[in-house]
Specification:
alpha/beta, Rossmann fold, 17% strand, globular
């Protein structure tokens, strides 16, 4: 069947960022489906304001330039979201998909999906990557009552008109149900682990350390991703100051960019750690991530201190499992439950920075335990989050929507608890 796949911020392994849509699109194509991804490019001057079309990995990508970056203010971001919704609507409709798959964020991605199916019997499958607008409301990004009302109305409209809903975590499923989505429509398909991609020799990580001037035996904690207000990477800089006092060899490699990058650098510089204990590095393509994770003793995924963030399904969490590395987070929720129940890392103390530093360095110093944690992480990636298995679940959701079959795809009980 023809699948029209709407994702405003689609990326490939040659780019930095999550590749969920790329990996799923190519597997859907391998399954025999005709997949058309509609997306945007963010580099100035791309395509001269026109649509470009290219074939990649068995599917077709339709792209249009719409400026966007994490440093934009709220109004600029909304303008980018609305602009893409408008320009992609006609393109999506012209492709005459047998099912339209729209993945957020942003929530406005549902508008071109709806337009593409208007007056037709084409089903929409809506994927919830973040609990929008619950998260931006909780973080104060949507403070105006009218903006909140409009966002909630769009959310309810999307849930009501979707044949199926895919949520990336149990918490996102619960939030969608609380906002009126039919629980029978919702399937939980979390972010996935690319075990084969991250299964590299230890020598790859050793080489990465040497290339970046990091001692082979230095405790190395890695963060990869966005430096945004929702991530609060400054927390790791604060923990790094405590860790440096305990072991001066310790290195925190913070890899990424975003609106808070300058603040992260400034804090590290104020502590006298920038370029020493704290290394702030530019983002790297997904294809280079296996070397980064191979070099790490512990990988991290951190968020700002708000309960709304506990339902997140960050790619870096699953990349860490795929690489067989200990994962450390600073929040509660389903990922914290997984870490504790499978002993694959640490749930760091949020308010006691010295204790968090002790947790990290204590695990790294216990090489026997660390090796066991690394083994369990990779085992968990294979048993519960294998990309091929989750891609088949998504294919079943899309195929069931096309055939008009009811009910959600059954998830493993361990994931949804």
């Amino acid at each position: 069947m023809r699948i029209v796949y709407l994702h405003q911020y689609f990326t490939t392994p040659a780019q930095s960022g999550g590749t969920r849509s790329y990996e799923f699109a190519r597997r859907l194509a391998d399954r025999g489906h005709d997949v058309h991804v509609i997306t945007s490019t963010r580099n100035a001057g791309d395509h001269g304001g026109q649509w470009s079309t290219r074939e990649t990995s068995g599917f077709t990508v339709h792209a249009r330039h719409v400026p966007y970056d994490n440093s934009m203010g709220s109004l600029q971001r909304v303008r980018a979201f609305v602009t893409f919704a408008v320009v992609s609507a006609a393109r999506a409709r012209s492709l005459k998909g047998e099912v339209v798959f729209a993945t957020s964020t942003p929530l406005t991605i549902f508008l071109p999906a709806w337009f593409a199916t208007l007056g037709r019997r084409t089903p929409i499958v809506f994927e919830v990557r973040d609990s929008w607008p619950t998260v931006p409301i909780a973080l104060g990004y949507l403070s105006h009552p009218v903006a909140r009302w409009l966002a909630r109305r769009l959310e309810h409209f999307a849930y009501a008109r979707s044949a199926k809903i895919v949520a990336l975590s149990p918490g996102m499923r619960e939030d969608a149900a609380e906002q009126g989505a039919d629980p029978q429509k919702i399937s939980v398909i979390p972010n996935a682990a690319d075990v084969s991609m991250f299964d590299v020799p230890d020598a790859v990580g050793v080489r990465w350390r040497r290339d970046h001037g990091i001692d082979v035996d230095a405790p190395l904690i890695v963060y990869t991703g966005t430096f945004g207000a929702a991530n609060e990477v400054e927390y790791l800089v604060d923990v790094a100051r405590e860790a440096a006092a305990l072991d001066a060899r310790t290195v925190f490699a913070l890899i990424g960019s975003g609106a808070r990058e300058a603040a992260v650098r400034s804090r590290a510089e104020d502590y006298g750690l920038l370029g020493k204990t704290v290394r702030v590095m530019p983002p790297v393509p997904k294809a280079e991530m296996p070397a980064v994770f191979s070099a790490a003793d512990v990988a991290t995924s951190v968020v700002t201190n708000n309960p709304a963030m506990n339902a997140n399904s960050a790619n870096k969490f699953f990349d860490s499992l795929a690489a067989g590395r200990a994962i450390a987070i600073n929040h509660e929720g389903w990922q914290a439950d997984l870490i504790r129940s499978h002993d694959v890392g640490l749930v760091l103390e949020r308010d006691d920075l010295r204790a968090a530093a002790h947790q990290l360095l204590g695990l790294i110093a216990d090489r026997a335990r660390l090796a066991q944690v690394h083994r369990r992480a990779r085992d968990l990636a294979r048993s519960e989050f294998d990309r091929d298995v989750l891609a088949r679940q998504l294919a079943e959701v899309l195929e069931n929507a096309r055939e008009g079959r009811s009910g959600s795809v059954r998830e493993r009980a361990r994931i949804v608890r």
